[in-house]
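> @MW can you paste both from yesterday?
MW: sure, first one:
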Amino acid sequence: MINVKRLVLDVLKPHHPNALEFAHAIAATGPDCRVQVTVLEVDEKTETLRVEVTGSALDFGRVHEAIGQCGGSLHSIDEVEVCSDGGA
């Protein structure tokens, strides 16, 4: 089995929810999910974020869904790290 360990995402979102609430929503997608949000740019209505998510087995679908539920839009997956558990 291949597990996703780390994602770095380029996200555009409205000002609300704020970065802390946004990070909480993504962290709630997995039991050991860690989230780092960096605000790269702010304009009148939106913020561009660099979102780094780490965990033992991230569920990209749930992370993507959480972004959408917060009004965000995924622009790109900029980095990804996966790991095989050694099983066939």
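MW: second:
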Amino acid sequence: MEQVLFIVWRESVEALLVVGILYAWLRANPAGRPGLRYLWGGVAAGLALSGVLALLILGVATFLSDDGQQYFQAGMSLVAAALIVQMVYWMRRHGRTLKRELESGLAYNVARANWWRLFLLVTIAVAREGSETVVFLYGTIATAQGGELLHYAMAGTVGLAAAFGTFWLLQLSSRFVTWRLFFRVTEVLLLLLAGSLLVGGLEKLVSIGTLPGLVDPLWNSSALLDDSGGLGKLLADFAGYRAQPALSVLLAWLVFWAASVSLLRRAAR
């Protein structure tokens, strides 16, 4: 449940960041006021596109056989992990100049009264965050049943409310909690989550015999830290900890972290 809350929170803050920058610019410039309705139109269109993607994913999953659903869930978990790494890499490269790039692009469009480009920009920005949320959440809650879905829905609602609160606080007190610090902390949490999704996806492939476990389990640390409850469960959900890992999954997890650290160092240059 904490994964759902975190994903909705982080992705919503990113979408609010883009929309907030554009909204503030349009409000502060009289020539930009007519663009406000295109801004909100783009937000609505982006949310609608995200909803369509969610329905498509659920529709595909419904028509698959049991084995097909296992492959689909494993694939979505791995895609979600890859998307998270790509997103963190992109934010590391463009985060520092995002505000300036958005405002210069907006000034160009306003000078030419090109409101439909603004509409398209906002639609893509919101749909991007929304579609990532859909993919991440499917990779996390694909096996949820009954009352669990209600809890996930509540966690998503809390995450959305927390995103609005976070955005408001960051705007008010940027001297104490800067956007830079926010992204640095959350990108580490996102990579931990990506590692967890990677482990979950690979474990499904091991369980259906597509991926060899090599040595399974490699060890058993359940007596020290069980991954079915308490701190062990939290680490399992958020970082991919396993009390009884398969060797192949552990090796993939180590490669994932080596590649992620290398990518982030490259993005920081």
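> thanks! The mean pLDDT is 83.
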